[in-house]
Amino acid sequence: MSEQTRYAISASWVVPMEPENTVLKDHTVIIEQDKIIDLLPTAELQQRYPDISVEALPGHALIPGLINMHAHSAMTLMRGLADDLQLSVWLNDHIWPAEQRWMGPEYVHNGAQLAVLEYLRGGITLFNDNYFYPDVTAAVTSQAGLRACIGLPVINFPTTWARNTDEYFARGLEIHQSLKGDKLITTAFAPHAPYSVDDDSFLRIRKLAEEMDIPIHLHLLETAGEIADSERDFGLRPLARMQQLNLLDTRLLAVHMTALNDADIETVARHGVNVVHCPESNLKLASGICPVAKLLDAGVNVSVGTDGAASNNDLDLLGEIRTAALLAKGFSGNPEAVPAATALAMITINAARALGMEHQLGSLVPGKQADICAVDLSAPETQPIHNVISHLVYATNRQQVQHVWVAGRRLLRNREPLTLDVEEITSNARVWQKRVGKDYVAQAGA
Ligand SMILES: [Zn+2]
Asked: For residue 159, how far is its CA from the centre of ligand 1 (angstroms)?
């Protein structure tokens, strides 16, 4: 391999995430095609790689590309449409009627593009999605050069995407087949929630996920109300029902997980279930609080997601882990709960582990994929720099994300996306503002 196919990124700090809680001062990452092949002190660069092309980023920290573990990307078009409401009212009276009216390939294309643009500018290089028209979201993501784990939705009610359960499965399997061998896009089953998916469908998902070797991405225990409803309808708490259906294992990405008692935490830990924490969505909908400190103490792998833009309302993972760290301290009464390095692990290495991709992603280690985010810490807002990891969690704004690479390919340069047209995406969003907004005002006023 000639020196020309390799390049180097030198930064004031590299936060590799493995080993944990480590900051390497004045280090350089060497990239060859899609992989990191070396990580060394910049002082040794000239001698070891004399002719290599170098991008020098003084004042920057290199961190792994961030991984958003729970997203409904196309819902960006409903950002701010209905706020300050209870989950059931928000879903039944606002979000689901709007989706019924507007959701289709064009809606998902424009909404997912807006989300992907927001992800990229916030340092997110992979998102775990759950939405209708997953083929459209996959295509948008591929075109932009990001990674995604695309959910194959299953829900017990008809949408324009599928008329019945059989059709949800058939369309999902077709998409899974068409994405086989794709280097950037993988799939997961995405049953909506225990209250909206029947036992037969769960059993079918269990069997297929095993055969296809893909994760199962599920909203679980979002609210305390879900428990009473499940006891009424199935005679079991949701977690006990999932256990009976043999769904509790390392394949499960259980999103939200509020309302957990100590026995539940023990069950989750024993089965190796991955918990996905969405603190801002849970706080905004007053759904409940996930006991993250207790889960971590029990050895559970916890990662973090933004949820959709309709319940957050930004797709900002750096903001999300700041909230996660602060909430864990306040909720547990222990300021040592979820320290900064743990919070950062939740959107990098823990997330990669949840997806079964820890051998390729989640840390800046030779042999792994070159998914890298460069954060400019030279702004006055992040001075002085006593502790880089502390700053990334407690003081940095996502606007400080300057450059992003995915699989060795540069996608963001000085905050300018290289594969997405900002003007076109923004103007499409304004078209939807007129369509959805006009309809919504008419309905609300009726
Ligand atoms: Zn969700």
From this structure: 17
